[in-house]
Write a structure and sequence with these properties.
Blueprint (H helix, E strand, L loop, with lengths): L3 E11 L3 H8 L5 H4 L5 E4 L11 E5 L5 E10 L4 E8 L5 E12 L4 E12 L4 H23 L2
Antiparallel strand pairs: 1-7, 2-3, 3-4, 4-5, 5-6, 6-7
Amino acid sequence: MTESHASSYASAVLNAPADEVWSYLRDFANLAEWMPGVETGVIEDGGPADRVGCVRRLIGPGDSVFRERLSSLDDDGRTYTYDVLECPLPVREGRSRIRVAPVTDTGQSFVEWSGEFSTDPADREAMEKTFATGIYATGIGALRKRFG
């Protein structure tokens, strides 16, 4: 079976300081609080949600299960990356990144969420759109509302 490399990206400016947004987003366990469609989210071993290597288990629409491992956390750079371990979507070897940067002239924050993954060529376009629009842009839009 042929693999196809795919990537997705979404970004927005939020009306809140970058440090405030980052202090909320750096909690790898709180996705269910702000991400539409995520019903529950827990760190599997009950350990700290900012420990590199921890795994969050998310329950989404239709009891779908997502498992993701925190692969890096950089407070100075206001970014973390995570690997997708289990996902009901037809993707493999997924890695995503969330980054928060200050918009220095306005005091707002710039948030970007991106990811790369492998998929079958027939699924590539649909999965790129699903991640960019259905996951990343939806999540950032919910953050924009949360931070007013």
